[in-house]
């Protein structure tokens, strides 16, 4: 990744949040996150002036894109920006990255600019197939277990409106930092409520091995809390740890029937509507 360009993206992000930010404050904020990569005050002043003049391009004179050059989304830059502000809207991210809003989908899940005919057909067949199973009595929603992950902030301050008398100052709200502390929540639930949840340890990531270990603990929780259930149906998305051969073998061992979740279909996840 071009770090100089990324730092300019971060500076633009700060400017969009507060267009009156000084070069000194901008430099301090950048150095909090990237002490070895942050801009000095002079560089910040130069780029802030460009932004205030209406030029929000982050390419320097030497790296201006050529005519016809393909537009490429840098996933690493996107990830870092989301970590800086997990509550950022799709429109804000698109503006900072200089991409079309249609490049992003709801809920922070990135999808292709255009779904192929095969993608659309797969989504249609999966949705109609699940509906037909339900109508035929082959899919009881009370038998479905679902799982999803969500980043949880240690401090989640939300600015809210409040009633105040005339000329009375509003209650101050702390401004979140650029790199808030957070933890990943892994959550399993069904129509009866929560079944099992885990918080990922600091520095740990979800691999197929880690996910299989979690599934064993979920199975134990099901045996304790849902002993009356005979046939388990399971719905999770198609992230790599979920679709690996090791995970598929584990699910077969547990005897769970996995329901289809087509690619690029964030709206298939019930957790985004009923849990988070």
Keywords:
276 residues; alpha/beta; Nucleotidyltransferase, domain 5; 5-stranded mixed beta sheet; Mos1 transposase HTH domain-containing protein
Gap from first CA to last CA: 33 Å
Number of helices: 10
From the 3D coordinates, which CATH architecture of the largest domain would you assign? 2-Layer Sandwich
β-strand percent reads: 5-15%
Describe the structure.
The chain is an alpha/beta fold and 276 residues long. The protein has two domains: 3-104, no CATH class; 117-160 and 171-274, Ribonuclease H-like superfamily/Ribonuclease H (Nucleotidyltransferase, domain 5). 40% of the residues lie in helices and 11% in strands. It is built from ten helices and five strands, in the order ααααααβββαβααβα. It has helices at 3-17, 23-33, 41-52, 75-84, 90-97, 117-135, 208-225, 240-243, 245-254, 271-274, and strands at residues 144-153, 182-190, 193-199, 233-235, 257-258. A five-stranded mixed β-sheet has the order 3-2-1-4-5. α2 packs across α3. The two termini are 33 Å apart. It holds the Pfam family HTH_48. One of its GO terms (molecular function) is single-stranded DNA endodeoxyribonuclease activity. This is Mos1 transposase HTH domain-containing protein.
């Amino acid at each position: 990744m071009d770090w100089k360009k990324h730092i300019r993206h971060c500076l633009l992000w700060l400017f969009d949040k507060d267009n009156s930010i000084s070069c000194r404050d901008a430099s301090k904020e950048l150095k909090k996150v990237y002490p070895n990569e942050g801009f000095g005050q002079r560089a910040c002043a130069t780029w802030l002036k460009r932004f205030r003049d209406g030029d929000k391009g982050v390419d320097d004179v030497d790296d201006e894109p050529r005519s016809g050059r393909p537009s490429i989304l840098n996933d690493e830059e996107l990830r870092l920006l989301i970590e800086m502000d997990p509550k950022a809207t799709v429109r804000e991210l698109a503006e900072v990255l200089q991409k079309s809003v249609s490049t992003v989908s709801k809920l922070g899940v990135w999808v292709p600019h255009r779904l192929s005919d095969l993608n659309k057909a797969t989504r249609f067949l999966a949705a109609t197939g699940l509906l037909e199973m339900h109508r035929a009595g082959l899919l009881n929603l009370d038998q479905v277990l679902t799982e999803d992950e969500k980043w949880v902030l240690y401090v989640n301050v939300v600015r809210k409106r409040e009633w105040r008398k005339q000329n009375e100052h509003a209650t101050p709200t702390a401004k979140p930092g650029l790199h808030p502390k957070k933890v990943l929540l892994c959550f399993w639930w069904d129509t009866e409520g929560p079944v099992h949840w885990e918080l990922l340890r600091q520095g740990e990531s979800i691999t197929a091995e880690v996910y299989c270990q979690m599934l064993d603990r979920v199975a134990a929780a099901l045996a304790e809390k849902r002993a009356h259930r005979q046939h388990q149906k399971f719905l999770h998305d198609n992230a790599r740890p979920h679709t690996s051969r090791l995970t598929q073998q584990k699910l077969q061992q547990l005897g769970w029937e996995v329901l289809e979740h087509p690619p690029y279909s964030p709206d298939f996840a019930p957790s985004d509507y009923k849990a988070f």
